[in-house]
């Protein structure tokens, strides 16, 4: 059986988390970036309606700032404090935990005042000061596997969290660089990394097509269901999905986001697959 940790153990201590008794996968989902209060609230409300119906533990995701952009004129955010306050409002309005990514050690304590999970971007997961600062806040630290790293190498990132005095680490696989402009997911990595920490599969970023000549990242959203199903079948504890009401006009990563109109059908199918895995 591939499930080595119960959902309750994995999510222990996260405020406002629901449905931990269902032995379901958990979900981190929301827009790539906080574009404004209305869009964040609408997306949160829609996803909460679906996850409550299906009994899925849910954490709202939104980046308060996008630091890793291909071009200097790419959208980076609406202002740090403004976006962080929106994340807090989502949490207080809907009684749901939230997650955002941080990019420098100095941001950890600031962001921790507003969200429940701090995410370390894949390009930065080897930055010791950043990982340690996140761990020292006492929040869950979601470590994204570097596109350039093996699954086995992630044990050292998890150990940094532990050495900083915390046992609250997750690993998120977001694909591995394949050539210059594509990503692949090696599903052997999921059971490997589950030896070190609970594992999340980032479905949407795994389908990015980076380094395009136009300076705007591409993607293959038509493959989202395929990657997500395989992730649940191979034992992922959680899924990470960026979603939007209008991906084509999203200000960040629209090319690989899931249209929110397709989310309920996808999650319904995934819950059924998870049940089969639970029964093995």
Automatic annotation (TrEMBL):
<keyword id="KW-0963">Cytoplasm</keyword>
<comment type="similarity">
    <text>Belongs to the KdsA family.</text>
</comment>
<dbReference type="GO" id="GO:0009103">
    <property type="term" value="P:lipopolysaccharide biosynthetic process"/>
</dbReference>
<dbReference type="InterPro" id="IPR006269">
    <property type="entry name" value="KDO8P_synthase"/>
</dbReference>
<dbReference type="GO" id="GO:0005737">
    <property type="term" value="C:cytoplasm"/>
</dbReference>
<comment type="pathway">
    <text>Carbohydrate biosynthesis; 3-deoxy-D-manno-octulosonate biosynthesis; 3-deoxy-D-manno-octulosonate from D-ribulose 5-phosphate: step 2/3.</text>
</comment>
<dbReference type="GO" id="GO:0008676">
    <property type="term" value="F:3-deoxy-8-phosphooctulonate synthase activity"/>
</dbReference>
<dbReference type="InterPro" id="IPR006218">
    <property type="entry name" value="DAHP1/KDSA"/>
</dbReference>
<protein>
    <recommendedName>
        <fullName>3-deoxy-8-phosphooctulonate synthase</fullName>
        <ecNumber>2.5.1.55</ecNumber>
    </recommendedName>
</protein>
<comment type="pathway">
    <text>Bacterial outer membrane biogenesis; lipopolysaccharide biosynthesis.</text>
</comment>
<keyword id="KW-0808">Transferase</keyword>
<dbReference type="Pfam" id="PF00793">
    <property type="entry name" value="DAHP_synth_1"/>
</dbReference>
<dbReference type="InterPro" id="IPR013785">
    <property type="entry name" value="Aldolase_TIM"/>
</dbReference>
<feature type="domain" description="DAHP synthetase I/KDSA">
    <location>
        <begin position="16"/>
        <end position="268"/>
    </location>
</feature>
